[in-house]
Amino acid sequence: MELTILHLYPDCMSLYGEYANVMVLRRHLEATGVSVTVETALFEDTPDFERAGFIYMGAGAERTQKAALAALLPHKEAFQAAVDRGAVVLFTGNAMEALGASVTDAAGKVWPALGLADFTTVETDKRTPEDVVAHTALWESAAVGFMNKCSTTKGVNAPLFDRLSLGFGNEDEKGPEGYVSGNVFATHLTGPILVKNPDFTDLLIRRLFAAKGWELPEKLPVLPYEREAYEVTLKELTGRAGG
Amino acid sequence: MRLVLAVIVCKILRFIGGLLGRGSSLPGQFALKVCPDVLGRVKLPENVIAVTGSNGKTSTVEMIAAILNASGKKVVYNKEGSNQIEGVTTLILSNCSLGGRMRGDVLLLESDERYARHTFRWFHPTHFVITNLYRDQLTRNGHPEWVYDAIKPAVFPETTLVLNADDPLVSCFARDHDPAKVKWFGLDECSVSTKEHHGVYHDGARCPVCKARMEYSCYHYAHIGHYACPSCGHRRHGTDFTVTALDLKEGTLTINGETGLSLAFKSIYNVYNILAAWSVCALAGADRETMAGVINNYMLKNGRMVTFTLGKHRGTLLTSKHENSVAYDTNLAYIAATDRPCTVLVIVDAISRKYFTGETSWLWDIDFDRLSAPHIQKVMLYGRYCNDLAVRFKYSHVPADKIEVGESIATAAEYLKDNGDEDLFVITCFSDRDKLLAHVERNG
């Protein structure tokens, strides 16, 4: 079992320790018996979407995100083909916005995005840094994390999280958050979201196995301290949400 | 008339606040209610120096104050670190005559990155020192470019900018500023410089102007060094104030090839603080001998380092701001540079003392590999977020058999009290340090 992870623009789209998402997924896959290769692509490169089983991009400063959009747009067809093939995609932070139709910056300039989905994003001059507790039908436990965005995203027909008990959704406080379509996952939760949410990691592994036609082991490996860390954060944040 | 009233209100509240031991922002807050444009009405001294940046503001301001005082100038500055508009108002009005004329020769302000534009709406500094911009408290600051955009409206054409030439983002402040009103400080390539970048992340990887790949001929630390963008030409500017030689081991440095100085605290950050202070003091008219004299005899008020005894351990607590990977990296480098066998205790219990958050992604920006040095015998990870720390260390080069994980800080202290006699280093934040210090005997 061999899998290639394609990490897009790790030198600048990794603002909040997001590179760790790739590391933790890799380690979980290896513990499940998969041999993993991580490939990176910079703005100047042609990303090898054909070989990629998993594609990841993290958050960047707003101006860096526009440069990432410009770098990625010429490879839109190859990216779409990978998605159609069943590649698993995770875009976190404002990388999520790249999947929509456009991003309008705070000065009003409209930047075209990949257009995998119809949603549009508008940046403001205000940031929303908030702890998040989020709920999805895709896995049982609540997701925990942090967001740090300056935008609202309208027109998401399939959010990843149906509701939040803490945090700001795509358009409003505690509203639906993120985007999901098939194996494409996107959320404005920033940082090492897979480190913090072992159930999300397990879901991605199940999807990767299914896409490859591999047989899933009866139990997915549990790595030390991850679940304990999750429980502590959940307890702290739900205490906060209730109080 | 409202000006006079505002001054009186401020002075009275300041006096009462002093008796009650209250903070310094309240009097300013009331004065601003009485006269909202009071800062635009007072007569300020000839020199108004502001200092901002991610790290080193307080230390730099203290040093500037010491030098200018020794130069015979009366300096008024915000010692209490109240660096938002209310605190600045309190400071200025408390030092004003009823006619609204401020006493003193120099007004010196440590300025919060995010609030500088509100304060300087009413008056513009004559000199604005910008030390560095890097990842710091991203939970409130967003990211360094966001902070850059927040400072930018506080930069006015008549202000002389005193900029760190070695920081590619800070250098951008000069881009549409009169070149005659920009002064640069920086380090020549020297003993601390490396050809390779060190650290978990590289915020200088891309040119801040055009986002092309930045080229560096050397790095001093993090993204601070000598850079040039091959695409748009944004590059390190030549310097007016320069550290031309540096020996961190010996603790000596040379400024402008002519003045030798000794360092009270042997860290690269202290070198930049000294250089920033030197630059702006020289511009404000201080002479070389006076500046060197003050710096060479400078007793660094380093409240961030506390020495103590715990059982048979000789302990050193290095306060690191949580959510600030550069502050952590500094202290980790300090420990890695020691050579006696030691144990390191890392505590993350409350992430911030100012606000609630469960945000731990900053742990992934810290270069914990530095603790893989062989003389570090054990790494203890404690506090409420010990599991997050433990996961993070699983991805470091620190061998698993050297790591111990537990929640209770008291248990860690008790264990250390009864076991071992090696040196002990404790790394934690202001919000958590007393939880350990409650169990030790402090020295001095």
Describe the protein's architecture and organization.
The complex is a heterodimer of chains A (243) and B (444). With 243 residues, chain A is α/β, with parallel strands linked by helices. Chain A has a single domain, classed as 3-Layer(aba) Sandwich (Rossmann fold), CATH 3.40.50. Chain A is built from six helices and twelve strands. In chain A, a hairpin with a 2-residue loop joins strand 10 and strand 11 (184-187). The N and C termini of chain A lie far apart (47 Å). Chain B has 444 residues and is of the alpha/beta class. Chain B has two domains: 2-296, UDP-N-acetylmuramoyl-L-alanine:D-glutamate ligase (3-Layer(aba) Sandwich); 305-442, Protein-Tyrosine Phosphatase, Chain A (Alpha-Beta Complex). Chain B has helices at 2-20, 26-34, 38-41, 57-70, 85-94, 116-119, 138-141, 144-151, 268-283, 288-296, 325-336, 386-394, 409-418, 430-437; strands spanning 47-52, 75-77, 106-110, 127-130, 160-164, 182-187, 215-221, 224-228, 241-247, 252-255, 259-262, 305-310, 313-319, 342-347, 376-382, 403-406, 423-428, 441-442. In chain B, the strands form three sheets. A nine-stranded mixed β-sheet of chain B has the order 2-3-1-4-5-6-9-10-11, with helices on both faces. In chain B, strands 16-15-14-17-13-12-18 form a seven-stranded mixed β-sheet, with helices on both faces. At the A-B interface, helix 1, helix 2, strand 7, strand 8 and helix 6 of A face helix 7, helix 8 and helix 12 of B.
Kindly list the characteristics that best describe this protein.
heterodimer, A: 243 residues, alpha/beta, Rossmann fold, 6-stranded mixed sheet, 12 strands, 29% strand, B: 444 residues, UDP-N-acetylmuramoyl-L-alanine:D-glutamate ligase, Protein-Tyrosine Phosphatase, Chain A, 2 domains, 9-stranded mixed sheet, 21% strand
Distance between the termini of chain B: 51 Å
SSE class of chain B: alpha/beta
Largest sheet of chain A: 6 strands, mixed
CATH architecture of the largest domain in chain B: 3-Layer(aba) Sandwich
- Tell me the number of structural domains of chain B: 2
Enumerate how many helices of chain B there are, as a single number.
Answer: 14
